[in-house]
Amino acid sequence: MIKSLGIVLDGNRRFAKYLMKRPWEGHKVGLNKARQAIEWSCEYGIKYTTAYVLSFENLKTRPRKELAYIFKYLKEEAEAILTDKNHIVNKNKIKVRFIGRIHLLPKDVVDKLTSVEEATKNNKNYYLNIAIAYGGQQEIVDAVKVIMEKSMKGLISPAQLNEQIIKEHLYTNGQPYPDLIIRTGGEKRLSNFLPFQSAYSELIFLEKKWPEIQKQDFLNAFKEFEQRKRRFGS
Questions:
Q1: Which residue, 26, 86, 193, 212, could crosslink 208 as a Cys pair with Cβ 3.0–4.6 Å?
Q2: Catalytic: 12?
Q3: pLDDT under 70 in the chain at which residues?
């Protein structure tokens, strides 16, 4: 059974290019698809979902205009969560968290995302992590910094350092590691997504670009996962 799912939402820009549209039009369609995917995960009974939306590297490499549209869509979606009781997040009582170096985003975006976290903090049916300005290596660096600060204060000794302590200082602290990670768009790599947490995750790569994904594609991936025998290094 899948308790925790990771999704790398890849292919929005290529989808737009194929249709001879601008990149941000692909992101808009991708956002609508993400809302559907959350519903599919809930229907399947998956308690925890982590969606990789915007990487730390994307903040440096994507054109400013494209980023501006991405931030615009994020704010619009946040506002929908805050005002629409029929939004999937509200209907399904989903607790939303935004993970990554969120402080690097524009202040108005940060304020909206923080409001969503506050509004959904008491939801307990499902948990959704949205990875924005996220990088797995950066997550580990941030965790190590905090651990080192505690060590300098005498709260943690080097001899105590183990996997559990690192886990407790990751953005996903308190949540299980992903059982399954799905990546769309045809690329077969994780691209700095949950490197610590994904050590024993099952990986499924789909050729379809993210906006093209249908419910049956997800169901097929879930079925394939359940047919695999997980060894956890044994």
A1: 212
A2: no
A3: 234
